[in-house]
Write a structure and sequence with these properties.
about 180 residues; alpha+beta; Pathogenesis-related Protein p14a; eight-stranded mixed β-sheet; 5 helices; globular
């Protein structure tokens, strides 16, 4: 890990929005949120450019390894879900939408997949050599995010985007299909 030596201030941060889930709803018309505190940690700084496709794959693989370790079925990666997750991460990275779950229901409906329940995890970090791993570590340490990761879902999608400030935005959407 690299450290920012100027004035001993670490410039790396990880921020997690609370995990967001829905209850089983046939009409897909309402959502409930799980409130967890926003977590922030500071470690190392870096101005690395990331391959967002590789980060998406890494998040997917790490979550499935975790689920397998807990004897939970692996999730299937879905291109439509990943597209919606990626759009959300891109919009947050560009400042078009705040770092949040705003628009979650629309994202899920836009996948055009019939579902019984859905969840979403988001993270933003900066300065880590492996932002995907750092996001997954943060999610696993957060009860609301962990609930989504361990949840009764069968499909997932992951989207990652970066911006000129070096921030890495990550979104993972979970669905349980009919």
């Amino acid at each position: 890990m690299l450290r920012q030596p100027a004035f001993g201030i670490a410039l790396s941060t990880l921020v997690l929005a609370s995990g967001f889930i829905t209850t089983p709803i046939p009409s897909h018309s309402s959502t409930n949120s799980t409130t967890q505190p926003v977590a922030s940690s500071q470690l190392a700084s870096s101005t690395t450019t990331f391959n967002t496709t590789a980060l998406e794959k890494s998040v997917f693989e790490q979550i499935n390894r975790y689920r397998a370790s807990k004897k939970l079925p692996k999730l299937t990666l879905n291109a439509n879900i990943s597209r919606q997750a990626r759009i959300h991460s891109q919009n947050m990275a560009k400042g078009k939408v705040p770092f949040s779950h705003n628009g979650f229901e629309k994202r899920v409906i836009s996948t055009s997949i019939r579902f019984n329940s859905a969840g979403e995890n988001v993270a933003v970090n900066q300065g880590y050599s492996n932002p995907a791993s750092q996001a997954v570590i943060g999610w696993l340490e957060s009860p609301g995010h962990l609930k989504n990761i361990k949840g009764n879902y069968n499909l997932t999608g992951v989207g990652v985007a970066t911006n000129q400030q070096g921030e890495v935005y990550l979104t993972q959407i979970f669905l349980l299909t009919n």
